[in-house]
Amino acid sequence: MTRQATEIETFGPEVENGDALVARICWHYYKEGQTQDVIAQHLKITRKRVNQILGEARERGVVQISIASPFGPCSELEARLAARFKLRNAIVVPAPIGDTDVRNLVGAAAGHYISEHLPPAGTLGITWGGTINMAAQNLRRRSGDGCRVVLLCGGLAESTAINPYDNAAMMARALGATCYYVTAPMFAATAQLRDALLSSEPVRSVLAMVAELDIALFSAIDLSEQSKALEYGVISRETWQSLRDAGAVGDICGHYLDKDGNAVTHPLTRRVIHPPMRDLKAVRERILAAGGLQKLPIISAAIRAGLADILITDERVATALCEDR
User: Fold this and answer.
1) pTM, 2 dp
2) CA 20 to 30 Å from 84, out of 15, 69, 184, 321?
């Protein structure tokens, strides 16, 4: 056994393993202001291990950092973005350093926004994706105030890294909310089956709740080579290519849009189980949380389609949107 392995496994008698160790390290670092070196020496582990645990804690939402300043780090860019696209609000997070997943940063900002703005006994509608998953991890915990979470899409028969039902369940647990699922697949096998499912009571009653939403939180699914829908096998490469050939740049809640925000015509769109576009556009507060330059076309399309009156994105996307002619 190497010396490093011995150090990692040999904790002081008062130090627990697992989540308790994570909590203890975060307390020492964030609450007490101790350095990573001091913490490592105190707990008899390596500084590298302390650094790793702190990073994982931030990614998992164990640590939620609030910056008590009246000015955001990108406030000027936010003002330009809101003015140009007539948005109610824009929140721009700094561009990530290194290989940090931008979804983590944008999702965290979305979670903080919802924590501040979802009213007591409020109803939140969500779509799927990694950004939504991270938003759920960064919600301020509530209990007993009667909130509801409504999943605005169907599920996936084969589990992926980010499952729609998991997202909804995480949101509901964080908010102490009742959760409502669309008990149908994301894509029906045929258009006829899709129509039958939409007319069935379990699906119809949940989708009808769109009219009662206080907030709808949308993610943007792009159709670039980096598309998570392609990576996770949600759509095949053949379908991906045919959607692109039809002019689609991505989808918002299953509505495939071209670069100008118009719905595209494609066989898949007749099989998607989701609320109608007119119902989504009528929601009082529509938040689009999406980042990464590969999503720039679908973010722009969603704004043009009227699916975002609040945009949460990253610095690079915001700059590109403002410079786009």
Assistant:
1) 0.80
2) 69
